[in-house]
Amino acid sequence: MRSLRNWLLPAALVLALAPAIGPRLYDHFFASTTTATASAGELENLVQQKNHLAWKSGTGNVASVTLGTPEFVVIEDVPLVELTEKYKKEHPGAPARKKIVVSKAGHDLGVYLDDTLLKSYPVVLGRRPRGDKKQEGDMRTPEGNFYAAWKNPNSKYHQAIGLSYPGTEDAIRGTSTGLISEKEGGQIKGAIKRFGIPPQTTQLGSYLEIHGPVKGRTYGCIAMKTHVAIEEVFAFTQTGGDRRTQTPHTLIQINP
Question: Which of 94, 139, 183, 229 is the most buried (most CB within 10 A)?
Answer without folding.
Answer: 229
